[in-house]
Amino acid sequence: MSGKVVLENISKWYGEGDTFVKAVDQVSLHVNKGEFIAIMGPSGSGKSTLLSIMGALLSPSEGRFLLDNQDVTKLTKNEMAQVRLEKIGFIFQSSNLVSFLSVRDQLLLVSKLAGKKEKEAKQKSDQLLERMGLFHRRNYYPEQLSGGEKQRVAIARAWMNDPELILADEPTASLDSKRGRDIVEMIAKEVKLRGKSAIMVTHDERVLDLCDRVWKIKDGQLSEHVTAHV
Amino acid sequence: MFLALREIKYSKLRFLLIGIIMILITWLVFLISGLANGLSSENASSFQNIEATHFIVQPNADKKLSRSRISEDKWAEIQKLSSPGGVTPFGQKMLSIVKQGTDHKIDIAVFATDANGFLAPDVIEGKKLRNDAKNEVVVDQSLSEKGIHIGDWIQDPDTDQKWQVVGFTRGQMYSHSPVVFMNLHDWQTIAMRQTAETTTYYNAISVRMDSSQINVLQSKVKDIDIISKEDALQNIPGYKEEQSTLNMMMVFLFVIASFVQAVFFYVITLQKTSMYGVLKAIGANTAKLTRSLVVQMLFIIALVIMCSIGLSYGAQALISPSVPFQLEIGTMVLFSGLFFVVSIIGSLLSLYQILKIDAVEAIGRVD
To answer: Residue A21: which H helix or E strand, with range?
Structure first.
């Protein structure tokens, strides 16, 4: 069955001769609608490169990446930016909010970049903030928020343009286990609710039970991981 | 706009500080330009307002009217070859005079001309200059600040020559001194008494002609040099030096202002590298980020220029009238335009930084 996110024999290598490094090696992956998968791996395993390729930030050296039936590998830089804007929602390791924007403006920025109508964007951002339990914080700046709250704002921001794919880069890294679990639960809930796909790169084994499938990456090669939780 | 203005709102202090620095620098540029204008008009308003197009001077006078001597014979020769009303003789001498009955010396510039010619001053108060009157002068009104009024006699303490002030004119300064206009008859006594010459002379012949007539004159009359009004102005003693000093200051201030602004934006752009990475990752393209930076810069420079213009006019109102200070709208517009241009050039450094940022950096690390 063809999914929302399809990776076909993706490879990425850097350098030549002695400096030749194969970061991602023949990776194939299908993620279906409403599916939340986790990718685990030690540092240096190629998981960030893989995430960058799936995030339309890097072009693979080889292979095909289809997102919502569109071949992303053949796009120009500007077209890739457009794909990121419309089809991908990022949740970064350390939330990476814009320091001078209020919580609400963080969300409005995304729709502004996409050129959407302001009135609809405002309604949407208010709904999202409500669901994330952040409505009372909408006029706060990032420096006034706790780590968990920042990460929730980042999740809300990721959903703002109604993306097909959510990519989370170690979203729990800067949080304690309780808050980390809350955050991952929120991502999982939204994915199921909206019928979108989400891929999370993580070290955190405590949240794997919230994912539908867990993959392991080692030396650039991906393999499905079977755990007791799943 | 969205990002640009919100950042300014959030980082008020930072932008306020750079804004104040920029305001002070642009204000200084406007003040110096006002001073340059003021000094130039105090130095040479008589020449800026003069209706002549050219001056005929002696070839070896180095274009300086004060060094040039045109003899009566030469004047007759020139007059014969020119249309009537197109040329008029011009005598000029710097003198120190006193108001009769006092011993306080005042520097003046004597301009001698045909009272019916085109160099004759427009009188704003009192009587006009006449060719048939003896020892009558029309003076620049700034002499009234020195206590000289219509009807007063002024005299040259060295020669005891005396003249009666019969009228005031306006905007007639030469080499930082007020101009005293006299007719050619009175000029002869000055020219002949104060030099060893036995016949009278003029410093120059003022000309009001188009260039084809000038060329004819130049080819027919030997031993003359015809210089433009602008040349004559530039060669007023001290004029060029004064203006070039002030212009150099302004050029330096422009360079400093553009560097200050460029460095400021460069540093805050460097600080925001990771933010730009994130914005690129979530789909902002370089064009949008560039627009944001340029809007921010133009917004600030526009505010800065408005404040500086306001402050400059404020300063003009407060500065005492004796200080040569004059703001000109044309110069202000030109300099404001220049500030916009230098700030856009200055922003190129920061634009390069934004271009260089790779969205992949937002992922934290690349294996």
So the answer is: strand A21-31
Chain A residue numbers touching B359 (CB-CB < 8 A)? 57, 81, 84
Chain-chain contact of B283 with A141 (C-beta, under 8 angstroms): no
Q: Between chains, do A81 and B278 touch, taking CB under 8 Å as contact?
A: no
Q: Which residues of A touch B10 (CB under 8 A)?
A: 99-101, 141
Q: Which amino acid is at B215?
A: N
pLDDT, one tens digit per residue, over A91-135 is 988 778 898 999 999 999 999 888 888 899 999 999 999 988 899
Show which residues on chain A lie within 8 Å of chain B, measured between beta carbons: 23, 43-49, 51-52, 55, 57-58, 78, 81-86, 88, 90, 92-94, 96, 98-101, 105, 108-110, 112-114, 141, 157, 161, 169-170
pTM of the model: 0.78
Q: Could you tell me which residues are beta bridge partners of residue B201?
A: B71
Q: Could you tell me the residue ranges of all domains in chain A?
A: 5-225
Q: Where are the domains of chain B?
A: 2-43+240-363, 47-235
Residues B322, B28 contacting (CB under 8 angstroms): no
| A80 neighbors A55 (Cβ within 8 angstroms) | no
ipTM: 0.85
The percent helix, strand, coil of chain B (3-state, each to 5) is 55, 20, 25
What integer pLDDT is reported at residue A131 of this predicted model? Answer: 86
- What is the mean pLDDT of the segment spanning A174-201? 89
CATH numeric code, A5-225: 3.40.50.300
**Residue A30 CB partners (closer than 8 Å, separation 6+):** A1, A2, A3, A5, A6, A7
Alpha-carbon gap, residue B168 to B305, rounded angstroms? 39
Chain A residues touching B276 at Cβ < 8 A = none
pLDDT of residue A13 exceeding 50 = yes
Mind telling me how many Å the CA of A23 is from chain B's nearest CA? 7
Does A228 score more than 50 pLDDT? Answer: no
CB A53 within 8 A of CB A60: yes
In angstroms, the CA B181 to CA B173 distance is 11
Using left for φ > 0, alpha for ψ between -120 and 50, and beta otherwise, residue A67 falls in beta
- Count how many Cα atoms sit within 13 Å of the Cα of residue B242 in the half-sphere of its side chain: 21
- The residues, any chain, with a CB within 8 Å of residue B211's CB and separated by 6 or more, are none
Q: A57–B281: do the CB atoms touch at under 8 Å?
A: yes
Give the confidence band of B197 by pLDDT, cuts at 50, 70, 90. Answer: low
Q: Looking at the partner chain, which of B275, B280, B359 has a beta carbon nearest the beta carbon of A98?
A: B275
